[in-house]
Design brief:
Blueprint: E1 2-6, H1 10-27, E2 32-36, H2 39-45, E3 53-57, H3 65-75, E4 80-85, H4 91-96, E5 101-104, H5 109-127, E6 129-134, E7 137-142, E8 148-152, E9 155-159, E10 164-167, H6 173-181, E11 186-190, E12 193-196, E13 200-203, E14 207-210, E15 215-217, H7 223-237
Parallel strand pairs: 1-2, 1-3, 3-4, 4-5
Antiparallel strand pairs: 6-7, 8-9, 8-12, 9-10, 11-12, 13-14, 14-15
Helix pairs in contact: 1-5, 2-3
Length: about 280
């Protein structure tokens, strides 16, 4: 995991480095750290996908951490941001910028462990992919960009934000969606239809409303189960659809395209994460 520390106070930077090294030793987990003394220095060095996580001080000489995070979003929207500050005054700004965490100084080991466990899990999730055959070509699709998968006549359609891929291989719907249903973001809402809960805005009487405007039918006997799953997803994992439209939906900060290229599979789940919320209805 690649981490940037943006902090203009050397003693605070050294304290954070020490805690992160203790975390590495405690959990035998490799971290690559790079330190920057200002937002300007960091922005000169940052590139898309260079860092997985940034610890960002809010009060700095020059441009603030909030301004730096805004510019970071333009360069690399997938990078997670944890704000560091001695005051909670900028917490609302942190939520607006979709900061992953907001840690008050002096940072302690407990808060580092909580934040790092969640961030590592999130980075692992961003690496999960579904390999499918489209025509004669194998395509690797990030789980985080799949909105839903549905049967269509004798084919299976994989829907993204504004892209639909159709596979006409002999792989069954159950086999194709099995990896998705082992991930807590996905839920089967009816026969031949699996949705990604992070892109469900709300559940209405007989349909799930997606963030891209699609309205998907829900099995009548599964309506209450789907509603419960969405609520559990929102409050347990802190992402996904919204109860109120002011809460950000695009929780995972991924790119607006399916075509991400091939990548190696992510590391195994840590501490039992990734439990599926529901089994698919094959009847």
């Amino acid at each position: 995991m690649r981490i940037a520390i943006i902090e203009d106070l050397q003693q605070d930077s050294e304290r954070l480095i020490k805690l992160l090294k203790e975390y590495m030793e405690r959990y035998d987990f490799a971290l690559q750290m790079e330190c920057f003394g200002s937002g300007e220095e960091f922005l000169d060095a940052v590139e898309p996908e260079k860092f997985d996580l940034c610890f960002m001080d809010i009060y700095m000489d020059g441009i603030s951490g909030v301004e730096t995070a805004e510019k970071l979003r333009e360069k690399d929207p997938r990078c997670l941001v944890i704000f560091l500050t001695s005051s909670p005054d900028f917490m609302a700004e942190g939520y607006r910028l979709r900061a992953w965490r907001y840690l008050l100084k002096p940072v302690d080991m407990e808060s580092i462990c909580e934040a790092m466990d969640e961030c590592i899990a999130q980075v692992e999730l961003s690496k999960r992919r579904l390999n499918v055959m489209i025509g004669r070509q194998e395509v690797s699709l990030p789980f985080s960009k799949i909105y839903y998968v549905a049967t269509a006549n004798r084919s299976i359609e994989i829907h993204g934000k504004d892209t639909t891929l159709t596979t006409n291989t002999h792989v069954t719907f159950e086999k194709l969606t099995a990896p998705l249903l082992n991930d807590y973001r996905f839920f089967c809402v009816g026969k031949g239809l699996v949705v990604n809960l992070q892109f469900v805005i709300q559940v209405e009487e007989n349909c799930a409303v997606m963030t891209n405007g699609d309205r998907l039918p829900i099995s009548r006997r599964k309506r209450s189960e789907v509603s419960a799953a969405l609520v559990q997803f929102q409050f347990t994992w802190g992402g996904g659809g919204v109860i109120n439209e002011e809460i950000p939906v695009d929780f995972y900060h991924m790119y607006n395209t399916f075509w991400m290229g091939a990548s190696s599979a992510g590391r195994g789940q840590r501490r039992g994460r990734g439990k599926a919320l529901g089994d698919c209805d094959h009847s």
